[in-house]
Amino acid sequence: MYGRPTYQEFARSAFNQRRQLSKLSGECITQDILRSAHMELQRELTRSEYRWIAVGAAVIAVAGFARTYYLRSLFHGPALSPLVQVHGAAMTLWCIGFIFQTWLIEAGRVRLHMRLGAFMAVLAAIVVVLGEVLTLDGVARESRLHQIGRLHFLLGINTVNLLLFAGFVVLGIVYRRRPDLHKRLMVLAALTLLAPAVARIVLLFTRKPLPQFLAFYACFLLCVLIDTLRHRRLHPAFAIGVPVVVVAFHVSYLVVQTPAWMKVVTAHFG
Predict the structure, then answer these.
(1) How far does CA 148 lie from the centroid of its chain?
(2) Contact 120, 97 (CB under 8 A)
(3) Distances from the Cα of 40 to the Cα of 36, 105, 167, angstroms
(4) CA distance linking residue 215 with residue 249, whole number of Å
(5) Count of domains forming the chain
(6) What is the value of pTM for the model shown?
(7) Is residue 140 part of a domain?
(8) pLDDT: is 98 or 106 the higher one?
(9) By mean pLDDT, which of 36-40, 97-101, 120-124, 156-160 is the weakest?
(10) What dihedral angle (degrees, nearest 10) is formed by the CA atoms of 225, 231, 232, 237?
(11) Closest alpha carbon to 97 in 122, 72, 68
């Protein structure tokens, strides 16, 4: 009863042990494969979300400026000055470059991404300078006609818009070694540029300012929701950057409604 096991009993025990080990090994391998596939899927979703954000921003920009720039001939729009055409081309190049930059990161072309980043920084500076010059020129043109037109009010809002864009781009350059901050700051910069395009789309349905602001803020909210759900946390860049945009736009809107603002603008431009 307590003697040595027979050869058959020993063989059966060894076989059962091998089968259990094989089963456990197979389960571990299967779990590793599933875990690896899940991680790869998460990485792909994380990479592609910024590409689609960039594409979405470009679509909104084209839709907003279709009647006055991209499809102007179809809508019989007025002729554009050379400066406006250059500004529009610079904005278009920036949008295309932003999409291309996200693709380069997806493709692992980091060095080319960094080289192109220098060109994008120069392009952003051109967008800011031309945007402000065109706004000031529009205010001066209204003043020469002895009019207090929409550009008298938009001067403050457009200036804040361009300063926010420039600020996010500069911060993106400063934190270029921090990918988590860099990419989100550049997304904020791209979304900030959408303000005029979103306003033009909303103006097709209503001239009330509140829907314009809400539609513009919805672009930020959608991106923040996507990013937060993907990463299961609200990133500080969005937690700080989006409220800054909202406060800056609302404060500028309130300021340009005041008599003091109009007094300063009319005194400067005559």
Answers:
(1) 34
(2) yes
(3) 6, 16, 34
(4) 13
(5) 1
(6) 0.80
(7) yes
(8) 98
(9) 36-40
(10) -60
(11) 122
pLDDT of res. 31: 58
Containing H/E element for 7? helix 7-64
Residue 17 lies in a domain: no
Candidates 161, 162, 182; CA nearest to 237 is: 182
Which letter does DSSP use for residue 67 in this model? I
The percent helix, strand, coil of the chain (3-state, each to 5) is 85, 0, 15
| Containing structural domain, residue 204 | 49-269
Structure tokens, 232:
């299961």
pLDDT tens digits along 83-104:
999 999 999 999 999 999 999 9
Cβ–Cβ under 8 Å, residues 51 and 106? yes
Is residue 177 situated within a structural domain? yes
Place of tokens 């080289």: 115
Using CA atoms, how far apart are residues 97 and 103, in angstroms rounded to an integer? Answer: 10
Q: How far apart are the first and last CA of the chain?
A: 115
d(CA 141, CA 151): 9
Closest by CA to 202, choosing from 192, 189, 213, is 213
Q: Where are the alpha helices (DSSP H) in 65-81?
A: none
Contact criterion met (CB below 8 Å) for 49 and 226 = yes
Structure tokens at 236: 């500080």
What count of other Cβ atoms lies within 10 Å of the Cβ of residue 18?
10
42 within domain boundaries: no
Residue 90 to residue 67: CA distance in whole angstroms: 18
Cα-to-chain-centroid distance, residue 181: 12
String of DSSP letters for 150-202: HHHHHHHHHHHHHHHHHHHHHHHHHTTT-HHHHHHHHHHHHHHTTHHHHHHHH
For the segment 215-253, what is each residue's pLDDT rounded down to a tens digit?
A: 999 999 999 999 999 889 999 999 999 999 999 999 999
